[in-house]
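Worked Example 4.2. Consider the chain below.
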Amino acid sequence: MDSESKTAMDWDQHYQDKHTPWDKGSPAPPLLEWIAANPDTLSGRILVPGCGGGHDVRALAATGIEDVLGFDISPAAITEAKSHEAAGSETYKAGDLFDLSEGMLDSFDWIWEHTCYCAIDPSMRDEYVKSAWETLRQNAQFLGVFYLNPYDDEHQPSGGPPHGTTEDEIRQRFEGSRKFKIIESYQPQQSYSGREGLEVVLRMRRLG
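Applying the procedure from the previous section yields the following structure tokens:
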């Protein structure tokens, strides 16, 4: 199965139709919590895959980081992100994380992950790990909040996105690939309403 068939959900149409229930209208609380606890730690060039409307991108840019790139497969999402007032010198680009251009490879010092991993088909998660590794420079870092259990009356297992996961699965995919080493793991104290206790924050270092 190719990447196009695996990503059959038409994200661009959702943004065109303004049907984006995953967009909470504000940055991910675990990101803000991590920034407050680790001032001046994030630096260099930062990639935000699946950035959507760009709330997390702007939160990162507001810290003074000069090179934050929001990246999304949906051109309409990128248009939406650009429509907001800039928080700094952030930029946005439409593209496919699984078909990266030369300028995206070995190019970033950090990745911030939020909801991209749970949005893609689980069969693509190993490809996600590979693509994340390819975008990062040697010894660069990956920071993300993972939505472990997104299931409710509306969303059921095998019926996503969003697709749930476990910390063990994430560890197996990232560390099992020998491409990353997890150096920090904890349950965030701050979350969107309804996600309390259902997320884990992981920080990793790129190997090789």
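The longest helix spans residues 125-135. DSSP finds eight helices and seven strands in the chain. Compare this with Example 4.1 before moving on.
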